[in-house]
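Translate structure to sequence.
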């Protein structure tokens, strides 16, 4: 067999980023220019009226220019916006019997025969510094000694979490299964046949023509990737309802080996699921919780350091697990920085864009070792949902965005209360903000998720109405929100 060693292709990521950045910069500048021009024309018209200039030509000329600008703004593709509404969402409220306190977890680990003292010491250290509290949950199969990880256990876990979250969403929104046009289910590590989306269709008897999709291997970004996928499908399917269901099945992801880089998921991953209803129907305009402002995603799978930084593989004994290396954090930082660079030019005020553009020019042509100016995202965003995959990930993301502890509180508290729930964590975090009644009408919420690949995705939402009272308190935080935030202990 002849193996041909192909030369490594040059990365085009940087060029693509500059290209995308240029497009969005031009779009942003054009939008501001059109707005300023429109205001200027209205100002001229006011002067003409006040000075009582009689020639009709003045009025016709000004009005014609104004209509041309208005038509350009509405018809130019990059400015077109079809409203996508987040009607409501539900998070799986975990049963009390599935609670996995650290002391219980360690006690069970000691009873597992194939782990030695060094491994047990490693597990204790990870739990101590992980940021997880005493009320996180594991599925029933992982409470056995030793833990069970059969296909049957994984299916039962999927039934409990997915059905509960989906059913709660239907009850909240008073939506019939027949009203669902698009169904997207994501789970990174468990892909049964029939698929998880088929399992939901079978259980709730969805329509024959419902569009079903199943996402796997997308890591912690999968939930928001499903949202982006749904809103793209809706561009060609008006008047549609889409439900996105997110979970991670832990039963089949359990690692019974001794490789420490593969044991992190055993220690920090916990049970959870979410279901979200989005729609492009106009009837939801007044009572949907949020409206989508922007969706943006990017990836760095072309970079071997990031690609192999979090990788599912077999260890030296042939036991399958998920490897997490230290190098992945630097790759994730670069992935987040690329995403934020493009996003900043779309949502920030004009002055912040100018400062950012000047810093890019200075770094590229004058002083290459200087750092880019980090825009003040708090001038455009009021609330930040940073994916609570772990304390290091939260800190890396906050470092890139220059955010203080006040803005990382929801992520840290979600990690403490529920652990790393992979793709569904971001919705438990938004539920935390709602339970605290912090999200006000008109506020913008930025959901930022990073995951294996590495990949990064941002969704920006605008709050559409007041979320308070019983509605805010009925989510997964109903029995514990008064205990948070926990200071200095997580």
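Result:
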């Amino acid at each position: 067999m002849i193996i041909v060693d192909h030369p490594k292709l040059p990365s085009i990521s940087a060029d693509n980023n500059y290209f995308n950045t240029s497009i969005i910069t031009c779009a942003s500048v054009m939008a501001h220019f059109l707005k300023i021009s429109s205001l200027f024309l209205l100002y001229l018209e006011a002067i003409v009226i006040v000075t009582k200039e009689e020639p009709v030509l003045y009025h016709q000329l000004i009005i014609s220019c104004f209509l041309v600008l208005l038509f350009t703004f509405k018809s130019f593709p990059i400015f077109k916006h079809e409203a996508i509404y987040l009607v409501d969402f539900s998070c799986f409220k975990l049963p009390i019997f599935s609670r996995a306190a650290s002391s219980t977890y360690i006690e069970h680990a000691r009873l597992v025969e194939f782990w030695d003292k060094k491994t047990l010491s490693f597990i204790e250290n990870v739990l101590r510094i992980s940021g997880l509290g005493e009320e996180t949950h594991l599925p029933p199969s992982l409470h056995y000694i030793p833990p069970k990880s059969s296909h049957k256990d994984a299916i039962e876990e999927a039934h409990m979490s997915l059905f509960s979250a989906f059913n709660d969403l239907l009850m909240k929104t008073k939506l019939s299964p027949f009203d669902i046009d698009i169904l997207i289910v994501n789970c990174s590590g468990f892909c049964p046949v029939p698929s998880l989306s088929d399992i939901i269709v079978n259980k709730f008897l969805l329509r024959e023509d419902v569009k079903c999709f199943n996402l796997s291997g997308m890591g912690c970004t999968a939930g928001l990737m499903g949202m982006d996928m749904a809103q793209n499908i809706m561009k060609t399917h008006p008047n549609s309802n889409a439900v996105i269901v997110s979970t991670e099945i832990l039963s089949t992801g359990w690692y019974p080996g001794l490789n420490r880089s593969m044991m992190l998921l055993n220690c920090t991953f916990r049970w959870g699921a979410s279901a979200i209803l989005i729609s492009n129907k106009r009837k939801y305009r007044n009572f949907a919780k949020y409206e989508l402002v922007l969706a943006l995603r990017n990836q760095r799978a072309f970079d071997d350091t990031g690609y192999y930084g979090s990788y599912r593989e077999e260890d030296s004994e042939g036991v399958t697990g998920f490897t997490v290396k230290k190098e992945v954090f630097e790759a994730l930082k670069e992935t987040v920085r690329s995403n934020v660079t493009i996003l900043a030019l779309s949502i920030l005020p004009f002055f912040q864009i100018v400062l950012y553009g000047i810093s890019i020019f200075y770094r590229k042509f004058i002083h290459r070792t200087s750092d880019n100016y980090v825009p003040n995202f708090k001038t455009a965003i009021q609330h930040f949902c940073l994916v609570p995959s772990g304390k290091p990930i939260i800190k890396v993301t906050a470092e890139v965005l220059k955010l203080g502890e006040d803005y990382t509180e929801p992520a840290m508290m979600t990690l403490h209360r529920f652990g790393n729930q992979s793709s569904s964590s971001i919705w438990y975090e938004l539920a935390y903000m709602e339970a605290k009644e912090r999200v006000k009408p008109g506020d913008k919420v930025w959901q930022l998720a990073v995951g294996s690949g590495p990949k990064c995705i941002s969704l920006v939402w605008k709050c559409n109405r007041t979320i308070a009272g019983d509605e805010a308190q009925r989510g997964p935080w109903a029995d514990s929100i008064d205990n948070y935030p926990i200071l200095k202990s997580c």
